[in-house]
Specification:
Layout (H helix, E strand, L loop, with lengths): L2 E5 L2 E3 L5 E8 L10 E7 L6 E7 L4 E3 L7 E6 L4 E6 L8 E9 L2 E4 L3 E5 L2
Parallel strand pairs: 2-11
Antiparallel strand pairs: 1-3, 3-8, 4-5, 4-9, 5-6, 7-8, 9-10, 9-11
Length: 118
């Protein structure tokens, strides 16, 4: 019943910025209901890589590769979590997937493409 809708990807030049959004809906879909909510990324033919998340208590975590460049935040009224991506590099290019965890349950967005290129 939980659905995650991620969006905000696109084409940006190196050094530019994008903001990804993940909106939760359905039963137990409140961002307050999840142990953690955030993003993974996965290029075709490669494994899914952790990027960032935020816990229900507001604690944030980042992969070393994005630390200092990405931030994660939440908008309670919109039931949405955001990933602000700054100083983007070509190696950030891939599909980004919203993710939410509720104990033994994992939910995924459909993915949004981020391309960093001149």
């Amino acid at each position: 019943q939980v659905q995650l809708v991620d969006s905000g990807g696109g084409l940006v030049q190196p050094g530019g910025s994008l903001r990804l959004s993940c909106a939760a809906s359905g039963a137990s879909g409140s961002i307050f209901s999840f142990n953690a909510m955030g993003w993974y990324r996965q290029a075709p033919g490669k494994g899914r890589e952790f990027v960032a998340d935020i816990t229900s208590g507001g604690r944030t975590n980042f992969a070393d590769s994005v630390k200092g460049r990405f931030t994660i935040s939440r908008a309670h009224a919109e039931n949405t979590v955001y990933l602000q991506m700054n100083s983007l590099k070509p190696e950030d290019t891939t599909v980004y997937y919203c993710h939410a965890n509720y104990y033994l349950y994992d939910y995924w967005g459909q993915g949004t493409q981020v391309t960093v290129s001149s």
